[in-house]
Amino acid sequence: MVWATLKSSGEPRAASREPRAASREPRAASREPRAASREPTFGLSPEWLLRDGEPYADGLVLSHPEQWERLRRVCPEAASAAVLAGDPCFDRMLAGRPYRERFRRALGVRRGQRLVVLNSTWNPEGLFGNGGGQDVVPSLLPRLTAELPADDYRLAAVLHPNIWFGHGPGQIRMWLDRARRSGLALIDPVHAWRQAILAADAVVGDFGAVSYYAAALGIPVLLAATGEERLDPEAPLAAFVRDAPRLDPQGPLREQLADLMVRHRPRTGPAEFITSAPGASAELLRRHFYSLMDLPQPAAPPLLEPLPLPPYDPPRRTHPLDVRTRVRGADVVIERSTGHPYDAAGEAHRAVHEDTLDPGDLATADVIWRDGPPDDPRLGGPEGWTAEVLRRHPHCVLAAYVSGPDHCTVRTRQHGVLRLSAGPGADLDPAGYASALHAWLVHGGVVPPGGSTLRVHAAAGVHPVTAATPRPHTAAGDGPGSPGAESRPPA
Fold first, then answer.
1. Contacts of 389 (CB under 8 A, 6+ apart)
2. Using CA atoms, how far apart are residues 82 and 58, in angstroms rounded to an integer?
3. How far apart are alpha carbons 94 and 460 in whole angstroms?
């Protein structure tokens, strides 16, 4: 998108042969559908820029000379108002690059996990529209959470603000309820989308600006909706869309994402055309603004607001998980997802969060877990809650109370109460540790008095976790006489 600084009066500006060097976030240069064979370029055509044959703005802010060249061709009357001022949005992203790991931690991305960000522009042909006639999203989201192991991948979605405005937040959240319960994060479309892109390992999107920004930052992009008919064929975005790899909605998603990240080589086009003045937009814009006001610039250097650190938003998976495990000695390979892929290997069990949408899920769960502070008076402490769960659900074999990012308290019918604690270098969801312990115990594992260490294989790494009988003071609310003081629930 181009950015216009409006005239202070109706007087036309003197013509200039070159754009002034002094953009806001450039969006897709797109064409509105019309019957004419040569459709107007969005933001760069007379319909958008002229009034009575004259430019209505004092300044038409562009981010790259390429835009000015196209402007001269499609609307030469407005070329005199062109101002080259870089891209403040992209400059803020460049400045935020050193904080990528913080942005990842804000989204609860653990070591070894891959963050996949889905994004959609607001056109009907966008990913959240009808995907260019393919209606991709209704089938894509359930398959992503089913085929991508929860401990290996984190999913997030950036939807254009006009999508939120057009449908309403309640409708959006209703449509995406299952995906959210399966771990999808909905990103603030105004304040946090840049941070999500900086944190991403891969982007699945369409022809909107977010995909182009990601490509300009060197992030792998897989197009799930191209919208080529809406793009100005001469725009750099159109060239990017023509060349970018395509998602095969019918093909295995895990393999496509893995292949995308392995084969990815940053493209020079997006980085070259996103801005002609990287890091300089604040200075160029201020120069332009003060020139319009006919005032001297302040002595202090112009600065852009840094990207804020978003609130902590870890995944909360309340949709039932199918868990596949392979046990060899103290090594446990684990994969958890919301479905059971056709070619999945390993022995299976079902793990269900206590807050699952369908209470009937709890009746078939082998593992039931929840998360919360250890001193929550509503739950009776980790030992009290685990005892209650095993009494209430006869099919359940193991109950797990996650009370921290690296530990949880579990109770089994045969082995009583155990505390699972992550060892050095481990960084996995503690509910995953609980499922690994369940698989190990089913295979005959026994926890000696001094504890036992398992090596849990997930997220392209090995996570040591120790299972041991907790000391009396390690579980809040479980002293003598407390509801959870008993070591085992009644049979």
1. 354, 368, 396, 399, 411
2. 9
3. 29
Q: Distance between CA atoms of 176 and 185, rounded to whole angstroms?
A: 10
Q: What is the DSSP string of 328-364?
A: ETTEEEEEEESS--TT--SEEEEEEETT-SSTHHHHT
| H helix intervals, 53-168 | 65-74, 88-96, 100-106, 137-147, 161-167
Buried b (16+ CB within 10 A) or exposed e, 296-333: eeeeeebeeeebeebeeebbebbbbbbbbbebeeeebb
pLDDT digits (tens, 9 = 90+) for 357-377: 999 999 999 999 999 999 999
Give the Cα separation of 185 and 170 in Å (integer). 15
What is the C-alpha separation between 24 and 91, in angstroms, rounded? 10
Estimate the share of the chain in helix, then strand, then coil, as percent rounded to the nearest 5.
35, 20, 45
CA atoms of 261 and 114, how far apart (whole Å): 10
C-alpha to C-alpha distance for 471 and 460, rounded to whole angstroms: 33
pLDDT, average across residues 49-77 = 87
Burial of 10 (0-12, 13-18, 19+ CB in 10 A): exposed
- Written as six digits, the tokens of 252 are 């295995």
**339 pLDDT more than 80:** yes
Element holding 259 (H helix, E strand): helix 253-263
Compute, in degrees rounded to 10, the torsion defined by CA atoms 44, 47, 53, 56: -70
Q: Of 143, 144, 171, 150, give the one whose Cα is nearest residue 159.
A: 171
